[in-house]
Amino acid sequence: MTVPTPIQSSTYNVKDHTITFLVTDAPIPLLGVGDDSEKFTYARDEDAWTKKHDCDGNVAWSYNPSRGGEIVIKTLHTSKTATTILQTLLGVPNPITEVINPVVFDVSITDNNGTWLLRGNKCRIAKQPDGNRGKEIGTLEWRIMCGELLVNEQGVNLDA
Length: 160
What we know:
There is one protein chain. This protein has about 160 residues and is mainly β. The chain has one domain (about 15-155): Roll (Pnp Oxidase, Chain A). It has one helix at about 80-90; strands at about 15-25, 25-30, 40-45, 50-55, 60-65, 70-75, 90-95, 100, 105-110, 115-125, 130, 140-155, 155. Strands 1, 2, 3, 6, 9, 10, 11, 12 and 13 form a 9-stranded antiparallel β-sheet that branches. Strands 4-5 form a two-stranded antiparallel sheet. Strand 7 and strand 8 form a beta hairpin. The radius of gyration is 20 Å and the shape is globular. The model is unreliable at about 5-15 (pLDDT under 50).
């Protein structure tokens, strides 16, 4: 008789994550990020597979190699340091043309063990953040568009 292997449980603490931006050669850690309920989210731009049916009902599958995606980082309205860093990465308007000169950067999100969870390459801040205000302290949602988004889930590189 084979004894089943017990399922290993792990704990999750949102405070145990570090978000770092790499602009030129200087890493910039992001401090003062949102509340404990949700620090960041991520999503792919497109589906990996699409299907087409012909008139006879046959199916053809097409693979999309795009690795682009988006990371949304949530900060509190009171997080002046985080807001300043992200606003700087958004870019500064040219005083004459009023055109924003965007900053291209890389971003890395790691846990406290040093394991990377997300890596975004060739990134830009999409726009001024969406926010909310009310009874509680408001949050800002910073959308980061990634030319390449690499995901490492439970120690498995989903892009390998």
